[in-house]
Task: inverse folding
């Protein structure tokens, strides 16, 4: 039996990697991947917490997150694709039209 | 009585507005006809109500009451004498305002008439509502069409004026909304059965400290609308930019909503706070009388002059309300009618002049009476009614106001009396500069006199001005009982503490009515 | 049947018809409508007055309520009339002189474009004036009071295209409104002190001691403020000379015979109140005497024929107030009646002169007219003899009644002032006669060729008024000359108790008659010396004290003082307040609030960089802080 702490450690490392990747990389697809990694780190933490309590709710939530993430990935990638077609660039620094 | 007459009264113009949406927008005659028909129906119904209304009873009549929103908020409407005459004034001016727009409005006629009918529904609702939430809804409904009327069909600085109008009025009404919510809570804690019910709130005893804040919130909302100085600054801009018919309604009816609010809500619900702030409010009212008059004296635009004269006249009305005796409040209510008619007429006439000359600057005119004699006669009557010449409507109201004010605090009356000099100075001054003297230039020479349609729009007002001046009891008799009831509320003579285990509201109200008689 | 309440009906109806349909009616119809309605009113007045005389002594006179007008709480005002001897005298003057002037106007205004408009206003005036004098309470009196003011405004500004006329009309209305503000307050004071606005209630309160002396004084003085406005007394006299811009018949009717006497009527009507107060009566007398002399001095040097008559009217109104102030209310009314005759005669004759001279007003460009206009000259001379107080003419009796009352009441100073005024009056009136009608012709040639006597519609009223001006004094012969001769005073006795009128003994009465006559003679003689015997004398006098002459010519500069002290500061301060305070501060504050909101928005908007990473950093920081908050 692996102690819960290890799971948390892995989740934290994964989350840290995601954050670092998001801030270091400048192209949208990679940043998008980094967000997915953070998401899955959160999933891992959920499951690790749910295991000792054997709570069904947490596992349901994780299943939901996976489903939503899939849908979101489809929409997100489609948006990135459209942006690329319009602007010929996927560098996040170039997209600043929301500046107030 | 089976028909829900009051609901029909405010729903009629709304139905007309909805009907307008489905009409073809290029058929101007059909659009006009529809608007005229509906405003005419409202007028007919209002006259019917006026005749049927029993002036000897103080309580609200034609009452309708059903469940509406959750939490005990009821749809509760009913009118007493004060609401009655104001509704009649609205219904009377509305068809005339529509008629007067025939030449003035060229673009987007359909939307214009739509907003007009919506405005009428809102105004009637404000005067008929007996539930605070309902009152607030109608109060805000009035704001929107007016803002559009100014902002779309107004003069060159219309957007500025409309924005100012909306923001300043909204500022007041948001304060009022907050106070309304607190009041609802207080009334619920006291065990009131119907939430936000105005009649119940009239009997609610509120701790003095709470009263102060709530009263101030209400007072600001209404003072903006009246307007009392220093919250008057939106009025000249709104008037100058608004289209003629908009100005007419703004001056004749919308301003009265503020005074009505004081009389119906702010003073009777918070009598202790009102008593505390009365000297300050009276000082503001007196300042408004004199200040408005002096400002009107130096205006170069006729509409701005009339706008400041409204500030002055409304100051007298407010001072009379704050004097709260029967004569003064009767005078104030009557003066609301009289001012609505005379100022409405003045704005209509200025509009007629503007349609022809495309200027409202006093300096651009001279000798108009030579080329437009009929117009000059009408303008003279409007001015004389406004400056309170005996025999016309203005005198009765003004004299009753002064009488009541003198009875309450003679020094207030002494301070307010210069208004009779100031009003003559600015009105006759404007009259002299526009109408008299040699004909200014060829443009003035080319002005044509009033058409029959324009006479048809203005003559009914003149007739009513004369009627009010000669037979004021037609209206005074309808308001007397309601006014004395309102004064008893303000003076706390009818106030009873609402018991926590209140019986059915109807019973309480019946008991209340008993006491009033 | 008492038909007195019907008196105002015909002129009112006619005014209404003329206002609505006047433009489409023929001149003939307008003439008949206007003159006919006043004739009807006059016959009703005559009938009612005769009936009243027949029923003499049956006091009190009941008020007849025609319409319950205003009711609110304790306040009530009715449209109700009361026809008593005082009202009868006034009504007869208003309709009688009014009728003559209506007829005169049909000739004088025959070529005017606004013929119907003129008669509409004139009829409306007659209507309002009748309301004023018939009213049984203050509220209704105020209705008439303001109504005549309106008609005065309309008729002064009849030739509104002339800026001076339009301005004069407005000035008249505004100055009157200043007085009316006081009048209004006076009514309010009385209403609360007495509980009713009925004249009879006020009289009862005074006689029953229900009103404090200080309150009575306050009310009486406030009411008198209104009277100074309407009757052109100092300090509110400034509008009347300018009012001469109106057509001359209007000056005769409104600004000489009727409207301007409304103040005197009001004081006489309230004689119980003024007598009770004492102080107020003293103020009335002092203002009257001062005005009488003050205006007469101005009239000495004026050159405009109508302005001379206007200042003379102010001065004569001063006499009436002097009479009322010293307690001789009947004498005040007596002078009101005779003045109505001789002053309207003078104005109408002056109008006839203007008519003949193509509108010439300056007496320096007249002269020698007595040969060209014999009828007008005779009329003007009779008017002058009457106003100057030459014995046996009407003005002599009425002025003597006032002066003897002042003397008998122990007001020697006021009496002396009245006497001085009498000298001045005789002087300036005969100056006018000598300059305009005697001496060589100074008219311009083109005017001279067209001089003609007026049509009969104008001369007949002149003749009738000449007769009245000459003989109206016989209704008030002093008691020395016959016990029962004092007709008017005995007629008025039910309203104005004789006890209030001070009496002189018969020896001092003769002395007073003698002094008054010699005063008139002195004025006449001086005028003859100055303008007939040695025509160079006036110019030398003017050169001798140029300052005084200039001050008199400028009417003591009262207008200029008001402009500088009242009008300009008020308008200037308003202008400044409008720019600095209304637009600057209040509007600035509102717009400033808007601007501040916008600025705050812009400031906050700069946080919105549009860069995703900045937002993400914000998330991260926020989450970290939030977690730290929870965990630590």
Result:
């Amino acid at each position: 039996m692996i102690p819960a702490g290890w799971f948390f450690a892995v989740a934290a490392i994964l989350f840290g990697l995601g954050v670092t990747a998001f801030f270091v990389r400048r192209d949208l697809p990679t940043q998008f991947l980094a967000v997915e990694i953070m998401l899955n780190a959160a999933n891992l933490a959920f499951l690790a917490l749910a295991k000792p309590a054997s709570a069904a709710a947490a596992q349901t939530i994780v299943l939901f997150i996976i489903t939503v993430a899939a849908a979101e990935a489809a929409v997100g990638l489609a948006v990135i694709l459209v942006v690329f077609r319009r602007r010929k660039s996927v560098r996040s620094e170039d997209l600043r039209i929301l500046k107030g | 009585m089976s028909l829900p007459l009051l609901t029909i009264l405010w729903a009629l113009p709304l139905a007309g507005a909805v009907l307008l949406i489905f009409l073809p927008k290029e058929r101007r005659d059909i659009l006009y006809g529809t608007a005229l028909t509906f405003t005419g129906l409202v007028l007919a119904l209002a006259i019917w109500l006026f005749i049927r209304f029993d002036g000897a009873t103080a309580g609200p009549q034609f009452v309708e009451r059903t469940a509406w929103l959750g939490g005990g908020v009821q749809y509760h409407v009913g009118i007493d004498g004060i609401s009655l005459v104001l509704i009649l004034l609205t219904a009377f001016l509305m068809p005339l305002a529509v008629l007067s727009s025939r030449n003035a409005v060229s673009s987007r006629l359909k939307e214009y008439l739509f907003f007009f009918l919506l405005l009428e529904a809102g105004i009637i609702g404000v005067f008929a509502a007996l539930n605070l939430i309902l009152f607030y809804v109608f109060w805000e409904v009035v704001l929107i069409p007016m803002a559009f009327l100014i902002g779309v069909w107004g003069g060159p600085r219309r957007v500025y004026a409309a924005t100012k109008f909306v923001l300043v009025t909204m500022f007041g009404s948001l304060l009022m909304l907050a106070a309304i919510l607190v009041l609802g809570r207080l009334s619920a804690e006291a065990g009131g059965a119907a939430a936000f019910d105005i009649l119940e709130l009239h009997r609610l005893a509120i701790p003095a400290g709470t009263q102060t804040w709530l009263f101030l919130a209400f007072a600001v909302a209404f003072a903006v609308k009246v307007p009392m100085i220093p919250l008057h600054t939106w009025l000249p801009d709104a008037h100058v930019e608004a289209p003629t018919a908009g100005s007419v309604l703004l001056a004749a009816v919308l301003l009265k909503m503020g005074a009505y609010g004081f009389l119906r809500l702010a003073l009777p619900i918070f009598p202790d706070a009102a008593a505390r702030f009365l000297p300050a409010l009276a000082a503001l009212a007196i300042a408004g009388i004199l200040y408005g008059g002096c400002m009107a004296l130096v205006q170069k635009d006729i509409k701005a002059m009339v706008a400041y004269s409204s500030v002055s006249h409304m100051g007298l009305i407010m001072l009379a309300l704050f004097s709260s005796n029967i004569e003064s409040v009767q005078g104030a209510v009557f003066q609301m009618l009289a001012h609505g008619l005379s100022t409405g007429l003045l704005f209509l006439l200025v509009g007629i002049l503007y349609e022809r000359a495309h200027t409202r600057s006093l300096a651009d005119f001279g000798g108009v009476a030579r080329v437009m004699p009929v117009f000059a006669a009408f303008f003279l009557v409007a001015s004389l009614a406004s400056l309170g010449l005996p025999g016309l409507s203005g005198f009765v109201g003004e004299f009753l106001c002064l009488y009541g004010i003198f009875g309450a605090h003679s020094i207030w009356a002494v301070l307010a009396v210069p208004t009779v000099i100031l009003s003559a100075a600015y009105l006759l001054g404007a009259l002299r500069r526009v109408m008299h003297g040699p004909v200014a230039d060829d443009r003035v020479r080319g002005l044509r006199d009033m058409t029959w349609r324009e006479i048809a729009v203005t003559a009914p007002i003149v007739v009513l001005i004369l009627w009010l001046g000669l037979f004021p009891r037609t209206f005074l008799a309808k308001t007397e009982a309601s006014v004395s009831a309102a004064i008893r509320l303000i003076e706390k003579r009818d106030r009873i503490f609402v018991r926590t285990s209140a019986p059915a509201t109807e019973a309480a109200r019946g008991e209340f009515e008993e006491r009033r008689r | 049947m008492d038909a007195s309440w019907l008196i105002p009906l015909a002129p009112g109806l006619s005014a209404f018809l003329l206002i609505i349909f006047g433009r489409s009616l023929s001149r003939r119809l307008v003439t008949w409508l206007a003159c006919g309605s006043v004739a009807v009113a006059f016959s009703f007045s005559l009938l009612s007055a005769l009936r009243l005389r027949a029923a003499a002594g049956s006091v009190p006179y009941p008020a007849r309520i025609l319409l319950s007008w205003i009711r609110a709480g304790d306040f009530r005002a009715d449209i109700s009339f009361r026809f008593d001897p005082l009202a009868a005298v006034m009504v007869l003057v208003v309709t009688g002189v009014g009728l003559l002037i209506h007829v005169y106007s049909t000739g004088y205004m025959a070529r005017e474009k606004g013929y119907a408009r003129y008669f509409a206003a004139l009829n409306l005036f007659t209507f309002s004036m009748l309301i004023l004098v018939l009213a049984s309470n203050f509220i209704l009196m105020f209705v008439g009071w303001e109504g005549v003011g309106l008609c005065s405004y309309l008729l002064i500004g009849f030739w509104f295209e002339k800026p001076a006329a339009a301005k004069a009309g407005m000035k008249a209305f505004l100055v009157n409104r200043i007085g009316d503000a006081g009048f209004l307050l006076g009514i309010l004071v009385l209403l609360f002190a007495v509980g009713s606005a009925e004249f009879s209630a006020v009289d009862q309160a005074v006689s029953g001691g229900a009103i404090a002396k200080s309150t009575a004084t306050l009310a009486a003085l406030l009411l008198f403020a209104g009277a100074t406005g309407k009757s052109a007394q100092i300090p509110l006299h400034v509008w009347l000379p300018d009012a001469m811009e109106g057509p001359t018949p209007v000056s005769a009717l409104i600004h000489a015979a009727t409207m301007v006497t409304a103040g005197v009527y009001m004081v006489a009507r309230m004689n119980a109140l003024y007598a009770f107060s004492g102080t107020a009566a003293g103020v009335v007398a002092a203002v009257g005497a001062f005005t009488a002399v003050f205006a007469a001095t101005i009239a000495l040097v004026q050159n405009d024929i109508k302005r001379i008559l206007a200042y003379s009217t102010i001065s004569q109104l001063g006499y009436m107030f002097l009479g009322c102030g010293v307690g001789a209310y009947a004498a005040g009314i007596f002078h009101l009646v005779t003045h109505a005759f001789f002053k309207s005669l003078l104005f109408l004759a002056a109008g006839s002169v203007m008519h003949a001279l193509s509108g010439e007003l300056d007496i320096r460009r007249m002269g020698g007219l007595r040969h060209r206009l014999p009828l007008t000259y005779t009329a003007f001379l009779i008017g002058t003899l009457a106003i100057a107080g030459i014995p046996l003419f009407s003005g002599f009796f009425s002025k003597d009644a006032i002066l003897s009352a002042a003397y008998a009441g122990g007001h020697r100073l006021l009496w002396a002032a009245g006497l001085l005024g009498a000298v001045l009056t005789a002087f300036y009136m005969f100056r006018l006669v000598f300059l305009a009608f005697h001496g060589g012709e100074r008219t311009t040639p083109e005017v001279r060729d067209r001089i003609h006597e007026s049509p009969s519609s104008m001369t007949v009223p002149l003749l009738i008024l000449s007769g009245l001006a000459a003989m109206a004094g016989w209704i008030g012969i002093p008691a020395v000359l016959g016990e029962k001769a004092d007709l008017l005073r005995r007629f008025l006795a039910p309203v104005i108790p004789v006890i209030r009128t001070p009496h002189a003994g018969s020896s001092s009465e003769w002395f007073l008659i003698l002094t008054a006559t010699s005063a008139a003679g002195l004025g006449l003689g001086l005028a003859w010396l100055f303008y007939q015997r040695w025509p160079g004398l006036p110019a030398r006098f003017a050169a001798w004290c140029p300052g005084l002459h200039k001050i008199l010519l400028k009417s003591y500069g009262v207008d200029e003082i008001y402009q500088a002290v009242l009008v300009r500061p008020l308008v200037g301060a308003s202008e400044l307040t409008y720019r600095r305070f209304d637009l600057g501060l209040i509007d600035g504050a509102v717009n400033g609030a808007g601007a501040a909101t916008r600025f705050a928005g812009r400031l906050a908007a700069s946080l919105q960089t549009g860069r995703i990473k900045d937002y993400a950093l914000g998330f991260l920081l926020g989450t970290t802080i939030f977690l730290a908050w929870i965990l630590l």
The interface with chain A takes residues 604-613, 616-617, 620 of chain C (CB under 8 Å). The first strand of chain C starts at residue 64 and ends at 72.
